[in-house]
Amino acid sequence: MTIPKIVQNVTVQTVSTAIVVINLLRHRDATCTCAEGYTGSDCETEITACINEPCQNGGTCYSSSASNFTCECTSTYSGDNCEKYNDCWGKCQCNYFNCQNGGTCVQETPSAYSCYCGPEYTGNLCQTKVVTTTTAPDTSACDSITCENGGACVTDSDGTASCLCLSTWEGTYCQTFDNCQINETRCENGGTCYATGNTTFGCNCLCAYAGDTCTEFHDRCTPNPCLWGGTCSNVNCTYYCDCPPGTSGQTCSNKVNNCMENWINVCTTVDYKAVCTDELTGYSCTCSSLYTGPNCTMSIYVWNALQAFGTTDIVSLLEQVVSQPSLISDIIPFVLGQLSTEEQEAMSWDYDDLFLWAAYEKTELTQVDIIKSFDITLGNCFTFNHKNSSTQYYLRTAGKPGGFEALMRVQEDEYPAWIDTAALLIFPHDQGSTIFAESTRYNAAPSKSTTVITNKITYKLLGGVYGKCVKSASEVESYYYTGSYTTAGCLRACYQDAVNDACNCMDPRYAMPDWATSCSLDSWDCVNNVTTIKGDASEWSSCICPSPCSDVEFESSYALNTFVYYTAQCNYSSTGSCYADYIDAALISVYVPSLTHKVYAESPAMSFNQLISTIGGMGGVFLGISIVTFIEVVMLFILICRAFVCKSVNTLNKANE
């Protein structure tokens, strides 16, 4: 059997306890008993104080014995085991890295230092003792150089020759006069003088100074490297920033980004085109043209409206309007309600703005025949055959020839953007009827012919013992509309009273008494909360609104036809302008199909006379009773009563006697 062998080449150590082993043969099953100071399966590892790597954070361990070690730390750590982080590394390292064995720490650059050791020690920290040798130096190398000005040739341990100069001379061969010896203070502010020639010198300045003689202060705070208004100070050949709260770092560059909250840019939650600028204690938003406000969340339209109304209580309302433009139609009355009726009428179209012509029974009408009135929701209304008109027109001919016709401008180009449909509204109604915005109506669109064929229907109730009905508006608690009484007008009066109780004003969209105050936009939420909380007025126990005893409605059919596209004939000098008016015009026709109308009237199921007659008739049929028999029975009752009365009188007289 061949015994495998392992050859160990162990380096000779200079310590006295080391053992030299050359070509050690070992059986694979053999074990080594190591000498003191060594360990390992083959005793190859020397036991030192550094074996457990006591130096942390990248420090280098130097062992002087099995139990003693020294750590050479990196520039950012200090301590016996390099466990301490240096907050001021680069500017105060000498406060943490102490040179050993009497060495002196010198700050060479803002981020580096070195130890100047005594003659008996060397190493980065002066931790290694210089071992001298007793071997006589080899001076043969001095034969090749000549030291001047009293200099002496010496050789080092390697046999290299050099000149050892007198104190006033320097250079390789002591050939340069050290004129710094004449005046050691030539270099100011701690600078070190060195000779550059027999009559010239230079200065090694401390890091805080510069210039030929170290007279120029090196201000590291100019320009100020500290961000966010930090205060700069020159410290240990570098600068130090006293950072404001919320910032940190050498230049105060570490700061929380105030523009971000939960990873969301605070300026772009609504306006995605906004730009956020981070500031020391906050942020500022630069909004796009469509938004404004600290976070660019308010529409510029809302902001402009606030400037006009002068109140911030309507912000939520205006924001709803921006997202839902149809709300404007509800808001307009709250704005117009603060104006006088004359001012409101002036803002709406007049007769000349709308009417091209109007006719009844094919006869042209004049402006006197059209009565203008104002409704806060509908604007200016124009009524033909109004009850206040000086001329009253009667229905004489059925069909279109006997009806009303008008060619009117729609003024579509003047409609605001939030109006979806451009059209005139047609309300067929009786002279005494009240028109609401929700009344039955028909749209007359531009470039179209609109025909309304209508028929009058009258409803009459008995009232009294047959059920409650109202003949006059004075019979209900509140009624603010003109014209004949209607249930809808009564319900709106109940609603207005409730609004006035809750908001100290009335809803401007409906009729109100002269003494009432019209609600402004500030009361928008209050007004809307009335129906939100109480519900519809028809369901209130306090609101009693019976049906009218007499009411008139119109049963209508509606037809809409597009104009035939040909150039209109007109008296204008330009057919082009005539055609433009024609495109914006609406032709309106309203007529009745016949001269008769429907009447629905309640009547008693049986009168008192009918009741007596019916009883008599039934009695005659079933009992043989006739009218003669009935008269005889009546006379019999009269005679019996008379006899009874007379007998009572006679009895009373006898008693008195």
UniProtKB/TrEMBL annotation:
InterPro entries: EGF (IPR000742), EGF-like_Ca-bd_dom (IPR001881), EGF-type_Asp/Asn_hydroxyl_site (IPR000152), ENaC (IPR001873). Disulfide bonds join 73-82, 117-126, 165-174, 205-214, 243-252, 287-296. Keywords: Disulfide bond, EGF-like domain, Glycoprotein, Ion channel, Ion transport, Membrane, Sodium, Sodium channel, Sodium transport, Transmembrane, Transmembrane helix, Transport. The chain crosses the membrane at residues 621-645. GO terms for molecular function: calcium ion binding; ligand-gated sodium channel activity. It comes from the Eukaryota. Residues 46-83, 93-127, 138-175, 176-215, 217-253, 255-297 form the EGF-like domain. SMART domains: EGF, EGF_CA. Its main location: membrane. GO terms for cellular component: plasma membrane. Belongs to the amiloride-sensitive sodium channel (TC 1.A.6) family. This is EGF-like domain-containing protein. It comes from Panagrellus redivivus.
